[in-house]
Amino acid sequence: xxxxxxxxxxxxxxxxxxxxxxxxxxxxxxxxxxxxxxxxxxxxxxxxxxxxxxxxxxxxxxxxxxxxxxxxxxxxxxxxxxxxxxxxxxxxxxxxxxxxxxxxxxxxxxx
Amino acid sequence: xxxxxxxxxxxxxxxxxxxxxxxxxxxxxxxxxxxxxxxxxxxxxxxxxxxxxxxxxxxxxxxxxxxxxxxxxxxxxxxxxxxxxxxxxxxxxxxxxxxxxxxxxxxxxxxxxxx
Lengths: 111, 115
Description:
The complex is a heterodimer.
Chain A: E1 5-7, E2 10-13, E3 19-24, E4 31-38, E5 42-50, E6 53-57, E7 64-68, E8 74-78, E9 87-94, E10 101-102, E11 106-110
Parallel strand pairs in A: 2-11
Antiparallel strand pairs in A: 1-3, 3-8, 4-5, 4-9, 5-6, 7-8, 9-10, 9-11
Chain B: E1 3-5, E2 10-14, E3 19-21, E4 24-26, E5 33-38, E6 44-50, E7 56-58, E8 64-68, E9 73-78, E10 87-94, E11 103-105, E12 109-114
Parallel strand pairs in B: 2-12
Antiparallel strand pairs in B: 1-4, 3-9, 5-6, 5-10, 7-8, 8-9, 10-11, 10-12
């Protein structure tokens, strides 16, 4: 158990819909990262937040957004969903400059 | 642009045999390099990492990796594979300067272990 908690574990939704994935980082970790793992793209870094502020951005689509709240939990919002958004979404957290720890992921299936 | 290549998509080894998983990277500066393992239905677990210093790095579960700058490689090795090592292995390079979180991953190598 990495200490990073992600909910929901599985989610099935229809095209065009919007979903929110939630992540609780390890206690004390100020940085949160979101990754997408899909069959065709592999593992891709989406975005990083540090203590509530966006720190780095990767291959995140404009339809996707994230935020980190004062209690340090983070949410990844995915809107106007397409079939190709079906993937495993990972959250990870770390103390700045240290090893990151991944959660078990949220499986999203878009039908 | 930074990139990571894992040339082997799938490797099968016999239990007790040695293992080497290949990883090549492309990065302009001194890279931060990582190996992660993903078991079915699980998250990613860090096996080991290289930042600087000794080019032979020891990790968890008996794994080691060697950084070879001249070959732009960071191959993962284990002298004797156990059935529980069957999983997918990912090599990654840190893309954000000192950040260990903004990682570029290879496509992964799936390891199967024969009894």
